[in-house]
Amino acid sequence: MGMWFVPLGNVLKAYGYGHLLAWVLACSGVAAFLSPLIVGAIADQKIPPTRVLSATSLGTSASLWFICAAISGHWGDAWVLTGAMLVSLLFAPTWGISTAIVLSQLKVPGKQFGPVRAFATLGWVAGTLLVSYALGADDSVRSGQGAACFWLVVALFSWWMPAVAPADARQHRSWVQVLGLDALALLKNRDHRMVFITAALYSAPLAAFYPYCVQHLRALGVQAASAVMSLGQITEVLVMFGMAGLIARFRLKWIFLSGIAFGVLRYVCFAQDTKAWVIVGIILHGLAYTLYFITTQIYLEDRIDPKWRVRAQALLTLLTAGVGNLSGYLGSGWWFAQAQHENHADWPMFWWVLAGVTAAVFCLFALTYSGRKFGEASPDETPAV
Q1: CATH assignment at residue 50
Q2: Residue 14 structural domain
């Protein structure tokens, strides 16, 4: 993931497709509306999720080779966008499924998930370092080709893993269940609803981080931009190893809010428009991301019936990668165009507005989420099965 997504903005710009960045990113948002719930329902109800993950990983690898060929061969905008949509459709379900597989094997997710999830972040860091220092591909399709090779490894590894039985296997399912739309019933619970809605809203300004921060670094003269971006993942790892202690000591509401607060502070740092402050903001990204989104995944595991595990994670993917990222990519793309003056980006103006949007999300969550102490029982956690 890190090998392709982090340098994507610079890659498109280098091959003359910079004007497509917002639309290429928007493909992931559109895909998140289509595939995660359907594939999540299949993994919950019919096919072992490890087998589903193997298939989607194989498809992601093939589609990455396709889009890299389209970009390097200058096939045209339509082919690049087609490749982006294929990558997005096949990749979109993989994160929720892999998360559900991990959570299904943990006895105490609140204590164990953070350290296990840290290995995903270490993989992201390794990917960005490979791009910058081994492949020299910060603005080359070699980054995507390298990512395609690693997706093949994921496909083989997940096929080799012992099969995890579907958590809610049924002989007869309605079309609503086949399409995974029954997961929307989770929104009837007030706390679930606010966690999901806030995740979507928070994802909108967050969507600007990777595509535009890497360009900001280049504008400030930083060459190995992908590697510098990995500093945020270092703090992610540190926070993940400390998640169990945080959950034991603080209410989830304060952990959620601290994550969003760090998100505000991150963009305030970017708005200072210097190398040092941008790097400080990148370091804060690990706190901004982990304290909200990893806490959300642990929250879902604690408060939702295991039979709904994959569908709950898929719904989270739909709302964050679909609603949140789609609006974020298109909105930040439009705002970035407005922040141009004489063919140069007004970076302080760009980041200050995003800081303000993130602050509004903080206020909304603080006023609407009540929550309860971690591990306490509640009579209406999940809809009737």
Answers
A1: 1.20.1250.20
A2: 2-165+175-368
- Low-confidence residues in the chain, pLDDT < 50: 175, 178-179, 374-375, 377-380, 382-385
In the block, which residue shows the tokens 């289509």?
A: 34
Residue 275: exposure state from Cβ atoms within 10 A (0-12, 13-18, ≥19): middle
Looking at the structure of the chain, the number of domains it has is 1
Residues 6+ apart with CB under 8 A from 254: none
The two structure tokens encoding residue 139: 């603005």
Output phi, psi for 345, to 5 deg: -75, 135
Which pLDDT tens digit goes with each residue over 208-218?
998 899 889 98
Q: Which of 71, 65, 70 lies closest to 90 in space, CA to CA?
A: 65
Residue 378 inside a domain? The answer is no
Distance CA 342, CA 380 (A): 56
Q: Is residue 105 part of a domain?
A: yes
Nearest to 354 by CA among 257, 288, 308, 307: 288
Tokens of 132: 């910058």
Phi first, then psi: give them for residue 189, nearest 5 degrees: -75, 130
Q: Per residue in 166-213, pLDDT tens?
A: 655 555 555 455 445 666 777 888 888 899 999 999 999 999 998 899
Place of tokens 């995507």: 144
Q: What is the DSSP string of 186-227?
A: GGGSHHHHHHHHHHHHHHHHHTTHHHHHHHHHHHTT-S-HHH
The CA-atom distances, in angstroms, between 64 and each of 60, 130, 132, 148, 249 are: 6, 17, 19, 6, 43
Task: Tell me the three state secondary structure of residue 384.
Answer: coil
Residue 376 lies in a domain: no
- CB crowding 252-270: b at 16 or more within 10 Å, else e: bbebbbbbbbbbbbbbbbb
Any domain includes 383:
no
Dihedral sign, Cα of residue 311, residue 359, residue 279, residue 323: positive
